[in-house]
Every structure is written in structure tokens, then in C-alpha cells.
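User: Teach me something about this protein's shape.
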Amino acid sequence: MFFFYAWVLRVSPSVMVSELMRDFAVGGAILGNLSAFYFYGYSTMQVPVGLLMDRFGPRRLLTISALACTAGCLLFAASETTLSASLSRLAIGAGAAFGLVGAMTIAGQWFPAHRFALLSGLAIMMGMVGGVFGQAPARLSVEALGWRETMIVFSVGGVMLAVAAWSFVRDKPVVIGAQRRSILNSLGAVFGNLQVWLNAVAGLGCTAPLLGFAGLWGVPYFETRYEIDRPTAAGVTSLVLIGLAFGSPFFGWLSDRMRRRRYPLVFGLIICFISFIALIYFPEVPLSIASVLALLCGFGAGSQITCFAAAREASPNELSATTLGITNGLVTSAGAVFQPLIGYLLDIGWAGQIESGARIYDLQTYQLALTAVVIATAIGLLSALATRESYCRQLS
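Assistant: First, the predicted structure itself:
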């Protein structure tokens, strides 16, 4: 449920684009950077998250981090400047950083190794359900209450999660206070592992369409291309996340079933790559077909789950959470990189049109800006092809 909550907070700015541009008087580049502050906090925290999980376990960490998300939501709701809004997104991202690694740590501690990819896929599925909730339903809340009031409502979820984490999560005693390696030795062992880097870059190829496109720019893109209202555009964008919700457990199950990590990852990246190209560049694609392509893009991106399992199996067992944290930080850096990059490219091609205080970009400008995502997915596919197969066994 924490990862569900994290995804609600992660994608919610995508249904507030016009309101945020208007209230903060900013363009696409600044808005993209503001939204990306979530990922600056999220990605930066992944290394300490992994180290802390390996030493102290998830119970206390999940409780504290849920409260950090609550504080960030309240600060964002009260923000009058881009500085305070950016800092609040930073706090939300730092708190949300514990969600997925915490879930994977629990899966690794309490369940058999050959079920790790499937269980991690189910955790990501819950996150994608949260992402869907953060799109169309969140947009309805914004229209009914306002974006500030919606963020206050979201803050209540953090309090509920903190209570649930403290009440129900249990640490496995063997991991509490573990000090088998020094911090520098732990980081060196993971950062110096080529397989961790290859799997992380492959995972980033999956998350570039998710975080760079669906996480912020998908809604205004579909509004522009199909001249549809914002709730409808949010619904279409949500299909990327729905696809990921199904793809993550499927590829996790397939990988565990095949006892392979590399093949499912490559297969999923091919689906994601082709679908995204068709979604952005193919002319005369009706909305119904675009919806299917969005679903397929997310489904293929679900193969990212295998990169976490492969990276974990390529590292020493006592550094599992550290490896997962570093891998997750690199994978989710797609949001920190591509949300502002796409915004910057959109501003370069902007023709000067403004509507209700927000900049309007034409279709050709969107297509040019989203080329960055296409390139990232292609690089991810090449990286996946270069990974070493672990056969679901610990290599280190």
C-alpha cells in the first residue's frame, strides 16, 4: 500500500499542469523541474534507503517515511512560490523512496528466492493502481475541490500508512543492526558491479516512458493530439500505468517460471519500444488504437521487474537491500531527467500560444521533445541484451 500511495503522489502533478502553470506563472521547463524534485529526493535517497534497510529493517523506516510524505503534501498545498513547492516535492520523494525497497526487502526476508520477481511484480502492480488513482480520479478531485485541497486529502493517506506500518510490519531479527560490511565497502561492491549498471540502464529504458511521459506530459499530449478534455486525456494516460500493473506480475511470474531474467526483460523492452514509437509518431492513429498502444507500452515496461531480481542476484546476499536501493535509484532517475528535459525541449519549440495563463504546445513540438524518451528506451534495450543471465541463482 505504501507503493500505491507513492505513485499517487508521483503522478498527481500531471493532472494539475494548467493549474500549477497558472498559479506559479511558469512554463513547461520550470514545471517539469518542479515535478522532478520528487525524483531528486526519491533517487538520492535510494542509496541510504538500501543501507538502512539492510541494517535496521523496514518497520521503523516505513513509519517515519510515511509521515515525511504527509508533511510534504501539506507543505505543497500551502506553497505560494516555486521554491517551497519544489522543496515539498523533494520531501515527498524522499519519504516515498522507502516504499518499493521496503516491499522488496520484506519479500526477500520472508519468502523463497524463486518467488522474489513475482512478489516484486505484485508490489509494482499496487503502485500502478496508485498511479491510475493519481490520474483520472485525482483530476476529478482537483476539479471538485482544487489542487491544494486535493493535496491535503492526500496527506491523510500518509498518516494512515504510518499507523499501519507500525502496527503490522515486522522486522526479521537477523537484519536488525547488521554490520557485516562498512558503508564504503558495501557501496563499492554494488557500484563496482557491471551487472548492476547494465540492469539499471535497462530498467531506465522501461521507466522513461512511464515517468517522463505518463508521469507528467502524457495528459497534455493527448489533449493536444486528440482535442479531448483533461479527464479523458488522464484516462488514456492511465492506461500506460494499467498496462504496467498487469505487466509487472506477468513478467515476474514468467521470469520465475522460466528461471530466466534476461529474455523476459528484452521481450518486454521490445514491446515497450515499438508501442511508444507508434503512439507518438504514427499518423492518423485513432484514439481507440492509441489507447491500446498506451496499454501495451505499459505492459512491456512491466519487464523492468526482472532487472531488480537480476541485479540482486548479481550482488552478495547481505547487500540485497543496498543493491535494490541503488538499482531503484538509477531506474527512477528517469523521472528526474526526462520530466524537465521534455519540458525544456517543449519550451524551445513553443510558438508563443497561451491559454488561461498556461503555455500551449503543438503536436510537432511534443513529438520532437518525446524523441528523448525513444532514445532512452533504445539504449535500455541494448543494455538488456548485454546483461548476464543469472538463471535465478545468486551469482555473487
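Now, about its shape. The longest strand covers residues 354-355. The chain is about 80% helix and 0% strand. If you'd like, I can walk through any region in more detail.
User: That's plenty for now, thanks!
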